[in-house]
Design brief:
Radius of gyration: 23 Å
Oligomer: single chain
CATH topology of the largest domain: Rossmann fold
Largest sheet: 5 strands, parallel
Shape: globular
Cofactor: thiamine diphosphate
CATH class of the largest domain: Alpha Beta
Low-confidence stretches: 1-42
GO biological process, one term: branched-chain amino acid catabolic process
CATH superfamily of the largest domain: Thiamin diphosphate (ThDP)-binding fold, Pyr/PP domains
Keywords: Oxidoreductase, Pyruvate, Thiamine pyrophosphate
Strand order of the largest sheet: 1-2-3-7-6
GO molecular function: magnesium ion binding; oxidoreductase activity, acting on the aldehyde or oxo group of donors, disulfide as acceptor
CATH architecture of the largest domain: 3-Layer(aba) Sandwich
Strand content: 5-15%
Mean pLDDT: 88
Pfam families: E1_dh
């Protein structure tokens, strides 16, 4: 099974044009025209783009990046394997192996680009859909899936990878990230913090409070909003009246909109924002303009609230297909590379399936541990009641066998 494109069945025009003038190494300070309000009557504000949907390399006056062929192939591989992982998780949920799954399909470039921009000593606060970022931070897929199978309450030690546990409460991670970033400043460290959230979470008060505290205390935090166009069934039009990145202006720090399906642009912009934070220049808001190709979660049916034509339009902007087109056009990868990667992807999918199905059942009594350091009479009583409840099933079974 190949998972390289959401739109493999749709004919696509590719670009055979040469690369534009070579990009400058590194990135510039975030002072982009995209941070200015949209002109009156403009359909959409400017966004940072370095790779067009047709796979043609372009330049931007404020953001540039210079990557080797190996690095570009690495980004492509990350996106392909992340999409494979996501596809396997959806299938496992449909088969009853997972309780729920929030798909990242279509958002691979936003997550891989930003994830690869972080340093090892940076700290990341995700929501519940950042599977690609988790991949970049070195979180084992098996540990990530444990929570969705119900065998644990998180799955990994956040301090091992500087990657916080998934946050289900919408928007609260913006406050967590800001507080952590304030602590980084007090410690005198030069690391940065990233807070991920979606367009729907941007309406939460916690996010606004995080913005304000980060601005006032000049915290080294990057707020990374994946605007995937839909907050479950609510479209952008019903969520806000101005582009999300412009909200940063009201709090006194810069914001920028980047093509969230362009892994090169996302990498360049996020790297610049993180460097800016490390230099002590405070927070920044990145709006990655992308699209959720699948359902909000496996309990959702997007056909109830959005049109097929909308999805088809975004399929033409597929992040994996555009990088593949560019790699082929520039001679940085051949068909053998893609064939080998497809085989690796299929093997990886098999490993994910086997890992999930071999997970041991959790200790049913473990939920009562680590609640109070010195114990609690109430928890002891609840533990005894639950143990008796579980034992009743075993007793019922013995009775039926007589």
């Amino acid at each position: 099974m190949t998972v390289e494109s959401t739109a493999a069945r749709t004919p696509r025009r590719t670009s055979g044009g040469k690369r534009a003038a070579s990009s400058k190494a590194g990135t510039k300070t975030a002072k982009t025209a995209a941070a200015k309000p949209a002109k009156a009557g403009a359909a959409e504000p400017e966004l940072v783009q370095l790779l067009t949907p047709e796979g043609q390399r372009v330049e931007h006056p404020d953001y540039s990046i210079d990557l080797s062929a190996d690095e570009l192939r690495g980004l492509y591989k990350d996106m392909v394997l992340t999409r494979q992982f996501d596809a396997e998780a959806i299938a496992l949920q449909r088969q009853g192996e997972l309780g729920l799954w929030p798909s990242l399909l279509g958002q691979e470039a936003a997550q891989i680009g930003s994830g690869r921009a972080t340093r090892e000593d940076d700290y990341v606060f995700p929501t519940y859909r950042e599977h690609g970022v988790a991949w970049c931070r070195g979180v084992e897929p098996k540990k990530l899936l444990g929570m969705f199978r119900g065998v644990n309450n998180g799955g990994w030690d956040p301090n091992t990878n500087n990657f916080h546990l998934y946050t289900i409460v919408i928007g609260s991670q913006a406050l967590h990230a800001t507080g952590y970033a304030m602590g980084v400043t007090k410690d005198g460290a030069d690391s940065a913090v990233v807070a991920y959230f979606g367009d729907g979470a941007s309406s939460q008060g916690d996010v606004m409070e995080g913005f304000n505290f980060a601005a006032v205390y000049n915290a080294p935090v990057v707020f990374f909003c994946q605007n995937n166009q839909w907050a479950i069934s609510e479209s952008n039009e019903k969520q806000f009246r101005v582009p999300l990145f412009q909200r940063a202006q009201g709090f006194g720090f810069p914001g920028v909109r980047v093509d969230g399906n362009d892994v090169l642009a996302v990498l360049a912009v996020t790297r610049a924002a993180l460097d800016r934070a490390r230099r002590g220049e405070g927070p920044m808001l990145i709006e990655a303009f992308t699209y959720r190709m699948g359902a909000h979660t496996t309990s959702d049916d997007p056909t109830k609230y959005r049109r097929d034509e909308e999805r088809e339009a975004w399929e033409a902007k597929d992040p994996i297909l555009r990088l593949r087109t560019y790699l082929l056009a520039e001679g940085m990868a051949d068909e053998a590379f893609f064939a080998d990667l497809e085989k690796e992807s299929e093997d990886f999918g098999k490993q994910v399936r086997e890992a999930v199905r071999s997970m041991p059942d959790p200790d049913m009594m473990a939920i009562f541990e680590n609640v109070y350091a010195d114990g609690s009479a109430l928890v002891d009583e609840e533990r005894a009641q639950f143990a008796a409840y579980q034992a009743s099933f075993a007793d019922a079974g013995h009775g039926e066998g007589k």
